[in-house]
Amino acid sequence: MMTKKVFQATLGWFGILALVGCASGPQPNRPESQTTGTAGMVPNAENMAGVYKQMGLMATDAPLAFVGKVAYFGTGSADTTLMLVTLSFPNRSLTFVRQDEQFSAPYEVRILLSHDTAQVRSITANEVVRVSNFREISRSDESIIFQRFFRVPPGQYRLSLALRDGGSSRGASQQGFVVVPAIRPGALSTPVVVYEAKPRTSLDSVPRFLPTPRSSATFGMDSAIVLYLEGYGSASQFPVRISIANERNQRTWTDTISLERRGAVASRLVPVPIGRAGLGISTITVSHVGSPDSAAARVFVGFGPEIPLMTYDELLSKLRWFASAERIRSLRDTPVDDRGRSWAQFRQATDPIPSTSEHEGLQSYFARLYAADVRFRSSGEMGYLSDRGMVFVTLGEPDQIFEQMVNQNNSSAYASNGRVQIWEYGQYNARLIFTDAGIGRWQLTNGSRIEFQSLSSRVLAR
Q1: Tell me, what CATH number does 64's domain have?
Q2: Domain count for the chain
Q3: List of residues 6+ apart from 374 with CB closer than 8 A
Q4: Mean pLDDT over all residues of the chain?
Q5: Domain range for residue 435?
Q6: Does residue 1 sit within a domain?
Q7: DSSP sequence for 208-237
Q8: Are strands 144-152 and 8-10 parallel, antiparallel or unpaired?
Q9: Does residue 290 share a domain with residue 316?
């Protein structure tokens, strides 16, 4: 099942707005629940917002990163649909200040629904996150979940989401079109990935659950995700077929279940074995057996929230300065069916703070990897593959950097003419020397390369 986490949730169970007379007519076909304009976006290794957008979500990048999701539920009338708008974002996106024994961070969320050029309704919510210790401030998972329900007529709307950090001037926003479906008897709700849920029994109420807008799972650690699903109508039986298709559109799992009737609503919490989907973005499709109605949701399976989207082989290649060659070789030689378990064991064995939901070691490592690629990139070479990038990723930021020029008269110590950089690491009592012959390609001297290899062996053995 999905890893247990602790959240600051702003649920707004009774925040339902009646939006009337502002939408176009009902759509003849039930669309998939997603915003438009995201097709064809290619995930970037350092851009998880691109991955979420490809999943049909609304997303922004750091420094104020959030993920927004829309879902639809029945109300008992085809003229009105219950629309759920959810945002999630990490604690570290906000500015915290200490207050007595706690740390707090205010934030503001604005949700705007409009039709054509007319503003339908603008909702502004001011909330405060409170945590008890400093470690919680740096969490990068979806530790804050904000949601609001609306009652809307079926039709097309423009949805605008905006998040503002109350402790700074930072803000982020996204907008897109949503098509609100008409939900009639025999139809299904949007399948929603949740951490927990309490099914409702009346269409006059709203579902009570804690959703995960990111709809993500960790390879090898989350054996299943849980979907909350509703069906509508008066039939005593409501059979549903569920299937998973991976990125190559190959069906990897299928099952048939029956929703359980609770008062006026048929619903169920459905465990889905997401481990069978493999890495990347998969599509979960649910359909009412004997009916043309269906709905879908996309989920992402990755190596963890600290690691960008990449293949298994790419991951092992980039971990060359994180773990010893023996550990990497063990992961590479693991049979395909056992890789999930081996990766979970690797994460647990190398996690510097097992009590948190994050892997702080991988988080800082990939941050250095990205920084090295930006700082040390040169023509024809990725920055993290350069000598300076290799040292930076492995040992971190040097305490001091000195640069000087050498010539034929004083270059014997460096075996080179041109510029020289000296990186000092007090923690390791080391001075590493890089030379540049004038082509912008900095290289370790032979002596410094031997010294670095000795240092990296000590670091990777931890």
Answers
A1: 2.60.40.10
A2: 2
A3: 383
A4: 84
A5: 312-460
A6: no
A7: EEEE-TT-EEETTT---EEEEEEE-SS-S-
A8: parallel
A9: no
